[in-house]
Fold each of these.
Amino acid sequence: MSAIQARSLNKRYGSKRGVTDLNLEVGKGEIFGFIGPNGAGKSTTIRMIMQLIAPSSGELTVLGSRITGDDPKLRSRIGYLPSEIRLYPDLTGRQALELAAGIHGIDLKKSPVLDYAERLQWDMKPKIKSYSLGNRKKLGILMSLVYEPELLVLDEPTSGLDPLVQHQFFEIVREWNASKGTTVFFSTHVLTEVERLCQRVAIIREGRLIRVSSVSELTAAGGHIVEVTFAEPGDRRDVYGLHSLDPAAAFTDGVHRMHVSDNKLQAMLGMLTDKPIADLNVRRPSLEERFMDEYRSKSSTEAGGQ
Amino acid sequence: MNKLLGFEWRQNKRGFWIAFAVVVLLQAMFAGSAQSYIGNPSIGDMMKSMPQGMLEGFGIHPESLSTYEGWISGEPFTFFVLLLGFFAMNWAIGSIVKERDRQTAEFLFTLPRSRSEIYWSKWGAHLIQVLLVAVVSTATVLVLGASSGLMEHSGAVMAVTTSGFLTTLGFMGIGYALTPWLNSERGALSIGIGLVLLMFLFNMLASFGDNLSWLADLSLFHLFDPFALSQGSGMPAAPIATALALYAAGSLAGWVALLRRDL
């Protein structure tokens, strides 16, 4: 069963596009990454899931309920962390948590959220107006976990968090997913986070989905990156004929970098065996590199079409 | 509902206490100084030298200064409506726009509470706040009137202040109708204060001549005749119905717009 299902979903703001013909399915219990640059339509999609805005056309079903308007019962099953969390400045952190818990009908003292507050090194006594962006973000994370949501919708959750806290946050999300089967819909433009956390990923660009696949499939489909440093200094691309296997072979800071498809890897390594190699690194491309490839190829296809 | 109502109350707490202090103290001041005005011939002479239009704009009739009830229906009534109208209008017109402008709408409207529940909780909190200020002001005017021995008809005084409260509800109706459509809290407050002030000016200008008298029809300050109420004429049904209809229609329009609008 799907936690989120979008069919031909469209959102327009007057003449401006939000998202166009979005078709997406997120399975229950999945950790799903939703990536794209600023303005691509990530937040628009999330705001439709949270019923802050209504789709212009198409269908959106969340946790089995089709969204047709304001549905507070459905929202009681969703934990939401907005990208820019703004709360009431005169409340203390604890009061804000109590407010959220109270509205969900939960006793804050019995919620695991106080333990998470310690793990995130968050002080709940000061007023929200004195909080840094990071502390506001921590409060937002805790508010989204204050009850036990079936679906966690996280919109750029780690901006403003230091690496240690980010690590703790990912641990908590993984724990929830593993122990409670919580579905996580995770929007970001930090691709390493998706790589670390998500099972599947969707790439959105200018309001349209350009790819949905598992993270491993996405990176595997990108062939291999071969990075070689030769014992002899300088650019050896022409001397060793590296362009014959990758016409776009690059030389930067003493490192020769080639991108080869899986069927050319053997040939590439064979060609390198009799060369004076000082260092060699063969790896799958990172999600970021694949993301950039997808973007570039999509842009050039569109430019060619025009 | 109670939690949301309490939360709105808490958000408006500072504004409420300022409104409470300003309106109640001013009414107490007017009621306390009634003795200096009532039956004072020098005040009567001074009034004769002043432009009638301006006096009427402030609701002052020379004959109203002969009784405590009449005195309360003049300047104290005008300031009561003006000040309570400012505060109440701002609470109403700010109810949704402040959440959008402070970017707290994303938190509030993703809670597991319906937009209707959130809206009517705010509405309820504002009504209680306005009612409290009006009741305490009225009580203050009644107590001071009774203790000075000047007040003869407490019912007439209550009718005057009740008409002020109903006029304020009319302002709130306008505020609720506008709040879902605005994006800036400052802009909304300016519009709110501007509308109350504009209606006050229309009422004042309408008194300056027959060719401007139509302006009175555009002003809620002209809805009731406080002087007639002070003379024991009783609460007329039509203005009550108009004020309540404006309040109800504005509140419903704001609610329907909130249900349909993107946030």
Amino acid sequence: MIPITREERQWFLRSLAQGLIDYLGVQEPPVPVEDLLKNPPPLYDSDFGVVDMYSNLWDATFARPPTQRGSIFVRIDLDPEERRFALARETLSALITSKHGRAIGLFDLLLPHLRESAEYFASHLLAPATMLKAYHEQGGRARGMSKTFGIPPFVALQRWEDFHSIDHTP
Amino acid sequence: MSMETLNKLVARSIIDPGVVQAFTAGRIGDVISELDFSAELCDSLSDIEAESWAEYAVLAYRYVKAAEEREVRIQLPSPLEGLLPDEKRAEDEQAA
């Protein structure tokens, strides 16, 4: 794999997120990430799923038991916003380890920076630039973003700052 | 515009196996030629060699970004404009 910059990796992650949003056909927030995992694109029938768990060890983690469907195991007692973000974050692991993801070369491209990539991917899956732009143009403010997009306040703040500094283009 | 087209292609590739199949079969040029790229970019993107679709996408991003930056540079006015008096500028233009 050729060396790539952070900017290139982030562009690629935004495009992946946009592909899933296009599949869902949603134009307005909140992006229904749990619906996506429960009713995945046909390519990911064996890779997307959600299993609620009682756990104090993690908020969510993707696992693929041998010969079984991959699933995101998520803590049952998370706040709705935290749950959505954790599911979106772990969706990247599901993509990377899927048959299609491996065929594309996601594993080599994204694994060395998985945690950072997953959080970036999640924030763009749940708050894509097009929706954020529309929200901003309709008078939306940083304070209301967490509720409108269904994401944790610290993620909303970070995404809002990113949006205003770099990415007005989809 | 070209970057928007590339964004859409990469976004499509995550849910449409046809794009990656075309790449793997060495027919990505067929896909590219159907999209809204300039003839020059179309040739460049069709000729990219990469080990995987992800690598191809990143290399394509570099080509498209460079092409768009060149376009912006061409549209920029000369830095001399506004510094030279009108008469001098007219003389320079005549000489050219």
Amino acid sequence: MTPATVSIGAQFINLLAAVLLLLSFAMLSQRRILSLIDLFAMQGAVLFVSTLVVAFTTGQVHLYYSATLTLVLKVLLLPWILHRLIRRLNVKWDVETLINIPTTMLVGIVLVIFAFNLALPISELAGTITRSTLGIALATVMLSFLMMITRRKAVPQVIGFLAMENGLFFAATSATYGMPMVVELGIALDVLVGMIILGVFFFQIREQFDSLDIRHLEQLREE
Amino acid sequence: MELTAVLALPLIGGMVLALVGHRRPAAEINAAFSLLTLFAAAALTARVIAGGPLTAYRQQFFVDSLNVFLVALTAFVGFTTALFSRPYMRVEHDHGKLTALRLRLYHSMFQLFMFTMLLALLTNNMGILWVAMEAATLTTVLLVSLYRTAASLEAAWKYFILCGVGIAQALFGTILLYFAAEKLLGSEGSALLWTHLDTVKAHLEPTVLSLAFVFLLVGYGTKVGLVPLHNWLPDAHAEGPTPVSAVLSGLLLNVALYAVVRCKVLADGALRSALAGQLMMGFGLLSVVVAAFFLSRQKDVKRMFAYSSIEHMGLITFAFGMGEATASFAGLLHMTVHSLTKSAIFFAVGHAAQKAGTQVMDNIRGLIKINPTVGWGLMLGTLAILGMPPFGVFASEFLILTSAMRQQPWATPILLMALGVAFAAVFGKVQPMVFGDTSARRLPHPPAILPVFVHLALVLMLGLWIPPYLAEWYRQAAKFIG
């Protein structure tokens, strides 16, 4: 690789990282469940492209496999399962949040600053071309976490959970050029199985409560 | 060879049981596979005693003095739980609380759960350790919600989300660990192998490792049930079927703590400061104190013993945090005796609650009249877990307290007070359950009481005499933890 390609690659990855962060904020502010799933799929697509770029500029062969894995799992399979679930469960409601959206966005900005500060000493140590994106990866994880806290329904919480996994995956590629293949396969399997179990679980919850509102799941507490 | 058998048997068992389904011998097949796993684990243990630590499959798996006794313990408690669950689950089925389809799910997932725990213990790869821990959550989520009541669904949802978020933190910690290791070991698959990390731990970047350890401790600590990350634990224990409570409390918490200890060894080597130990002591002490005070407020018997598990896990975490050979020795011993005692208690509680038709302690009375063996099992188990001599819990708690007096004198009165509060709370509630007056009839079916007394006998033995080879393992393991 010539230095020029590497530098263009690095800039391209920075661009994609910014898009990833933007998408996280978009998910945080999105009220409609179907759009939320689309945003999640877009996040997966960005992840796929960025992994591909890292693989191309660094010549790490195993990253091509993990890019393919991302494409299949996060862009195609998981959104498809989610769409199917929504249709089968026949939920059309919009997303309700516990805190209003402008406040959530402000909290989100604070979280991003915090994440950048936390990642700063580590980014300086990284020798990879993508090191400046570690802060963004951490910020994505924290924003997804925030989304899980502020949403009241089960499906958005799960999308938050999956988005968090996206952020972690981005951290792995940006800081280390990806984890060893066997570990990545294991993580992908866990995510997939987890999604299927959650699907089963949604039906159980709805059968019991006639709704997927988490408020029904707040009966167990200490007196 | 033995290692392959230990891992393959529960995996095959899970698949076979999914096929066998709800036919009559499912429970017997479950017990048989658990027994075979126990034999394989015993053979593996014998081989490690004879030949020392070993690695297998291009170093992807390894067995040393720290994990070998946990493997044996896991296989043993897995087998006795399978014995206990045979009559227990059959009665639940006959009472109409479970359909045949859910029994199939239960048996199959029980074996897969054993598989994930054994994989977590035996793997040498920190990434696979994470994958196995997450898989252990996934296999038990549907078991916690097995009764499909509103409360059990809520408990399972809480369990899934809290442990899922927690374990995601651990993944970030693992990524940071890999990031630090990659510089020294290259980006080949070996950079996450624990044995390799252990040899280069002194050269790992301290800033990265301290951050990594915080994430790993929070992540795996959620599964250990450390306060304030413990919210899922009482609900999951109280609402799931009793055999599941027994293995969650007796085994899963141990495996999660094992993961924390592995990470601590690496962090200690890299940091050359006591940060890791101090964090563990802080979390441990907080767990002991908070859990002790929550004990007296419980009404549900399984919930109370779940809080007792948090208390004991906190105590063990504190012991490992002190990081000295005696304290680590005591921590390992306490892990063993807590696991045996707590599962025995859950077995006895399961029979008692099944007979009374409720888990509310005020409604369970006079066990000693209705079924003396269950009553005595619960009483002796409670005395053992509260640290009465001559049981093994007394020995380990005594060792932890004396090393605390030497190393962290300020913590000793706090620990003693918490143990006293726990004693008063638990004993005061269990005593009327066992000796009070009752109008209930005798149990219509014979309880599986053998596992309870086998466990208690082992705990008693460990209190009086620790077999030399076991003491030797503890000593070796304690040496490299401390």
Amino acid sequence: MTFLDYAPAPESTALLNLQPEYGLFIAGEFSPAGGESFTTISPATEKPIARIAHADAGDVDRAVAAARKAYDKTWSRLSGRDRGKYLFRIARLVQERARELAVAESLDNGKPIKESRDVDIPLVAAWFFYYAGWADKLDHAGLGANPRALGVAAQVIPWNFPLLMLAWKIAPALAAGNTVVLKPAETTPLTALLFAEIVQQADLPAGVVNIVTGAGETGRALVNHPDVNKVAFTGSTAVGREIARSTAGSGKKVTLELGGKAANIVFDDAPIDQAIEGIVNGIFFNQGHVCCAGSRLLVQESIHDDVVARLKVRLETLRVGDPLDKNTDVGAINSAEQLARIRELSDIGEAEGAERWSPACSLPDQGFWFAPTIFTNVSTSHRIAREEIFGPVLSVLSFRTPAEAVAKANNTPYGLSAGIWSDKGSRILAVADKLRAGVIWANTFNRFDPASPFGGYKESGYGREGGRHGLAAYLRGAK
Amino acid sequence: MTHIAVPKTYKLFIGGAFPRSESGRVYEVTTPRGVFLANAAQASRKDARDAVVAARAAVGGWAGATAYNRGQVLYRVAEVLEGRRTQFEDEIVRQEGVSVSAARAQVDEAIDRWVWYAGWADKFAQVAGNANPVAGPYFNLSVPEPTGVVAIVAPQDSSLLGLVSAVAPALVPGNAVVVVASERHPLSAITLAEVFATSDLPKGVVNVLTGSPAEIAPWLASHADVNALDLVGASGLEWIDLEIAAAETLKRVLPPEEGPDAAAPALARIQALTETKTVWHTKAML
């Protein structure tokens, strides 16, 4: 036993009070769906958690009608002050049930409990608090006098931060006066359904929030529904492109938060210990299932070997395993499908000549697991340097001059995020100016805050979430 | 003895030069009554691609110029435009068949609108940006940046004002522009290009194509090195197809506008062609 061996410290699932089966949440009530229900499983054990309803086109129609009715009859007639109070209630209920939500999230998603407990759920509450306060201050948002809601918002979210993405979508939409129909990801519907219970506890008027579970077809029916005024999507660039095509000419306001291949640039004068932590956080946070993950490490040549060596030492200490264990650093890959993709691209990385390394770690027999992986000797043309892997896989490249770092960082169709590590403020600001990415983290990485706009350049999508800009995405007349 | 006039050859404006269309094609520009005015260059797919290359080469320098400098250069455009106003008035009268006073009013408004936009160059970031009070020891600032290369289908029923209304807001934040001029009234566009060429606007920042928008716009809509597509003057085209083509590289698309308020001056037009960049920086714990 080394000093890093701990006794298991799993978070108890006893505080969960899950139903064996969940329906669709439409007009304030749970109801059965037209489609064949499916099972959501824990990716760490492959054990079933609950049966989930599969909404078909008719169900989507019902949900949109409920949202429309709620918009026309209730929500659009409510004062901003009252809308805000509902959102404050929701924020408080999230805080009250925070531990339960964190456990459910880690169970369904596979992410470490210390992340769902300390990052995801606190940010969910923060997001509702932040936007709650905006609801009666829209005139002061710098969007002109009396900005107005769009109507019914169709929202489709991914599986990597299930409840947090729900909060990013629902909080600003409701604050601005819209009603919503939200579709959670197929593999992570659980916390959205618990959120539906919170909506009931908050006594939110029926139909203001509707949750329809299902797969890609359900999402397609929702974004293409003719009575939808706004489409907000977070997910892959391929699906984002499809949505941009199918909504062309519809007049629907669309925001897309898509893929990324972020450069994390480490200069030779960087605070190395912090940079190592930032690199690890950048790519191994949430198993690398992060659209803004720092998946391309660009290290100045003079410190390349030192950084890689230190990184390997640090990776040896990462604890991979049970997501519900409080000591776990890296949890389970979310699905068999995603695991297959990570394996495929990693194998391609090796085949193309990059050097693969993982720390010695034993992975559980059940569930979907992938050891933290570093590729060195990566060239810019390698697929692992160009394509989003969306897993715990880091590609390491080197550079000599700041100009080369900028050129390499920008050499991607994506433009979501980037990191800069240097002790020289003037260099950080100059490089930040030249990076074509929507979020730049200097001497930090993967920070999120409801007050801070988030979103991409180029093929990482358009529109912003968070801050005043995130509010503008749900208001008429405001760009 | 009477002076025999020396008519101007209207060519394209690409990368600061005035080439003919590589296709060798021209088309006749006439008065509303069909009287021949000039042969305008009929731009091809290759011309459009050359224009995008020129715009891409120019965007870094223009975006990297100080906002004050961009404002100065844009104001200079208005000065030179004012100096050549009789030429614009004359061309508008001949192309559109309107009265001299109507043409004069159009030029007045074009100049004033250009000055209005020029003044935004060093101000809009203060209105569109944000200091963000995040919950942690971080300096956090959001600033607007230019989207990049913007392709524009200019309003088709206006010679000068429509063009100015679409091009100026794109230039303010530092975008480079490829604009397809009004097909019927292209002469003012090329004369405006002469203004650009003599106003310290770096070459390639604005590129002007004349010809058929229906022919050229699809190539711009699908071009992978174009970041945004302003369809303000595309209502007569199959513009939904253009928007669908633009989706391939997730271009930002501005929809067609019609009527007297089309492309009305607005801060929103500037912001629609910007990206918000948010920079986080750690603060030391003292």
